[in-house]
Amino acid sequence: MIRNIIFDIGGVLVDYDWKTYLKSFHFPAEKEETIARATFLGKAWSELDREALSIDEITAMMTAAAPQYTEDILTVFHGLRHTIHRRDYACGLIRSLRERGLKVYYLSNYSSHTLGQTREALDFLPLMDGGLFSYEVKQVKPEPEIFASLLARYPDILPGESVFFDDSSVNIEAARRLGFHGIVFGELSQAMAELAPLLHPSEPPAGSGFKASLPL
Length: 216
Known about the structure:
Blueprint: E1 4-7, E2 14-16, H1 18-23, H2 29-38, H3 43-50, H4 55-65, H5 70-77, E3 84-86, H6 90-99, E4 103-108, H7 112-118, E5 130-133, H8 134-137, H9 144-153, E6 162-166, H10 169-177, E7 181-184, H11 188-199, H12 207-212
Parallel strand pairs: 1-4, 1-6, 4-5, 6-7
Antiparallel strand pairs: 2-3
């Protein structure tokens, strides 16, 4: 029996739209690509989510990757609040799942720096039963240790009774290897269609019916 739903946040409950944000600066194409590689696409970004390094160390890594654009990299980095936008269905989806008697949690690669800038967009967090951000344990998905940390924090969560949603297939595969049910989140209707037979295994798949019942 499925008792728990565990959500990634970016790409699932919020839009993480760094590309539009970066384009808003109207940098020339080569400069935009270089800054993207130094920030959002670079090794420094995963280290930001892990938070084993200080913010000064992280920004030093970013600017070292493209020192000619140091000032612009710092400007981009300190405006991260513009990359996160809550999806309209987030609160209704969480409420609907909890009304069905399910526990709802989050497991997300997220830094305290980013959380401080984007907490307003994550206004659905108080609706959930709990969760874990990567910065709290200095571990990141898809490392198995971060899943173990979630289970240690919430002993009532059993992998075989839990469905994990993430927009990354790599993270989903990591969860499945640990015994979780995993669904790659593409869009709401697809995700709910895949969830429905797990909640009601004796019934034929009825994803559209489940979606229609949500107070969206």
